[in-house]
Amino acid sequence: MGWLLAIVTLPLGLALGSFMTVVTARVPAGESVVRPRSRCPTCGVEIANRDNVPILGWALLRGRCRSCGSRISARYPLLELSTAVFFSGSFLVYESVWVAVAIAALLMLMPAIAAIDIEHRIIPNRVMYPSLVAFPVYLVIARLEGAPVDLVRMVAGFALFGGALFVVALVSRGMGMGDVKLASLIGLVFGSLGLRFVGVAAGAAIVFGGVGAVVALLLGRGRKAAIPFGPYLAAGAVVAGFWGAQVADWYLRTFVRV
Ligand SMILES: [Zn+2]
Questions:
Q1: DSSP string over 231-242
Q2: 119: CA distance to ligand 1 center in Å?
Q3: pLDDT (tens digit, 9 = 90+) per residue, 4-29?
C-alpha cells in the first residue's frame, strides 16, 4: 500500500518540487508565485513548457538556458528532487494515510525553507503563517476522522519546541523569530505523533548544528559566516519524519535503559 502511494504521488511530488523552486526564487523578493511564467534569470526568455519538466528539463539541456546558453544552477533540480523524495517517501513510512499526508506536506517545505534561509537569512512569514494555521486545522480534522494523532501532544510539541527556541532567540543573536516559528511548526506536527518524534527532530537539529559549527570553524570561517539555524531544523525534521521511531527507540535503549 505504501509503495503504491509513493509511486502514485511521485508526479505530484515532482510538480510540488517545481513549484517550490518558484517559491524560493520569488517569495523572498515579495513576488507572486502564480504569475508570470518562469523566465531565464540571465536573458529573461520565458521557459518553454517542454523545458519546464521537473529535473528532466534541466538534465536534457545539461543545465543551460535553451536560448542564451547561460548556466542554470543545479540547485533547481536538486530542490525538485529532494522535495519529491520527501513528499512521496513519507507514504512509505506511515501506515495511516492521514498521518502520511501531514508528514509529506511538512517535509516537502523543508528543502525550500532551507534554501531560502541559506541564501537570504530569513524563514518567510508567507510560508510560516499559513502553515501554522493549516496544519493544526488539518490535524484536528484528521483526529475527528479517526486518524492516530494526538491533539494534546500536538499543542505540547508546539509549546515545547517553539518555546525552547524562543528562549534561545531571546538570549542569543544567532537565532531569529523565523527559527522559532519553524520549530513551532515542526513541534506541533511531530508532537501529534508523539513527543519522542519532537525529541528526535530537536536532537538531530542540535547535532547537525554542532557539526556545522565545527566544520565552519575548521574552514576558518568566523561565526558570522556560519549558516543559519533554519537548515538544521529542516534536516532534523526530515530525520524525525523518516527515522523518528527508530532513532527514539535506539536512544532510549542505549542511554535510558528502559
Ligand atoms: Zn537565457
A1: HHHHHHHHHHHH
A2: 22
A3: 999 999 999 999 999 999 999 899 99
- At 149, the amino acid letter reads V
Report yes or no: 94 and 103 within 8 Å, Cβ to Cβ: yes
Instruction: Kindly give the distance from the C-alpha atom of residue 39 to the centroid of ligand 1, in angstroms, as a whole number.
Output: 8
From the CA of 72, how far away is ligand 1's center (Å)? Answer: 9
Instruction: Calculate how far, in angstroms, residue 11's C-alpha sits from the geometric centre of ligand 1.
Output: 26
Q: Using an 8 Å Cβ cutoff, are 80 and 17 in contact?
A: yes
Rounded distance between C-alpha atoms, residue 57 and residue 60, angstroms:
5
Helix (H) or strand (E) holding 22: helix 10-26
Q: What is the pTM of this model?
A: 0.93
Would you kindly state where each structural domain of the chain is located, as residue ranges? 1-93, 120-258
CA of 69 to the centre of ligand 1 (A): 6
Phi then psi for residue 46, to 5 deg, are -60, 140
How many A from CA of 200 to the centre of ligand 1? 43
Check: CB of residue 232 under 8 Å from CB of residue 212.
yes
pLDDT in tens, 131-174: 999 999 999 999 999 999 999 999 999 999 999 999 999 998 77
Amino acid at 231: P
Angle at 115 between CA 109 and CA 121, to 5 degrees: 110
Measured in Å, residue 232 CA sits from the centre of ligand 1 at 33
